[in-house]
C-alpha cells in the first residue's frame, strides 16, 4: 500500500512538472511577450511584480533549471539512487543562475523588486533542497520524499501567488 501511494504521488508530480515545463518553454522562447494581468482576489502576479525584462528572463531561466532538476530528483528518488539524488538536490540548493546572469547593479535592485513572501518561499525551498540532499545521502528515502513533497508544495504556492496567469489552473477562486 505504501508503494502504491508513492507511485501515485510520483505520477501526479511528474504530470504537474511536465505541464509547467511546457508553459515555461513557451515564455522563454518569446521573451518580448508582454504579460498583462488583472488583479485577482488580492494576488500578486508576475506582471504586478513588474520585473525588468532581463531580470524576468533570468528568473524564468532559473525556474526552468529548477524544474528540470526537480524532475531528475524525483526519478532518482523513485529508483533509490541515493548518490544521484544527493547530487541533484545539492544542484538545486546551489542554483545560482540569477547571480550568473545579472549584473551587480541588477542584483542589488532585486530584493526591492521581489515581494518578501516570494523571497521567503525561495529561501525555504533551497534550504529544503539541502536537507533533502542530506537525507538522500543517508539513504533515508522516506524523509527525502517528505522533503520533496514540501518543495513541490512550495512550487505550487509560489505559482499560485506570483504567477497566476501562467498557471491559471492554480488560481484561487474569488467569491
From TrEMBL:
Pfam families: Cytochrom_C_2. One of its GO terms (biological process) is electron transport chain. The keyword Signal applies. SUPFAM superfamilies: Cytochromes. Keywords: Signal. Residues 1-24 form the signal peptide. One of its GO terms (molecular function) is heme binding. The keyword Repressor does not apply. InterPro entries: Cyt_c/b562, Cyt_c_II. This is Cytochrome c.
Amino acid at each position: 500500500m505504501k508503494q502504491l501511494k508513492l507511485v501515485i504521488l510520483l505520477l501526479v508530480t511528474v504530470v504537474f512538472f511536465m505541464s509547467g515545463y511546457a508553459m515555461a518553454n513557451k515564455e522563454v522562447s518569446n521573451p518580448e511577450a508582454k504579460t498583462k494581468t488583472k488583479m485577482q482576489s488580492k494576488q500578486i502576479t508576475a506582471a504586478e511584480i513588474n520585473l525588468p525584462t532581463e531580470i524576468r528572463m533570468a528568473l524564468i531561466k532559473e525556474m526552468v533549471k529548477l524544474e528540470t532538476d526537480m524532475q531528475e530528483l524525483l526519478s532518482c528518488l523513485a529508483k533509490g539512487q541515493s548518490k544521484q539524488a544527493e547530487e541533484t538536490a545539492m544542484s538545486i540548493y546551489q542554483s545560482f543562475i540569477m547571480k550568473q546572469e545579472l549584473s551587480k547593479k541588477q542584483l542589488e535592485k532585486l530584493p526591492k523588486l521581489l515581494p518578501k513572501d516570494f523571497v521567503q518561499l525561495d529561501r525555504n525551498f533551497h534550504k529544503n533542497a539541502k536537507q533533502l540532499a542530506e537525507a538522500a545521502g543517508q539513504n533515508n528515502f522516506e524523509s527525502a520524499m517528505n522533503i520533496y513533497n514540501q518543495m513541490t508544495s512550495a512550487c505550487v504556492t509560489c505559482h499560485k501567488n506570483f504567477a497566476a496567469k501562467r498557471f491559471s489552473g492554480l488560481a484561487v477562486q474569488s467569491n
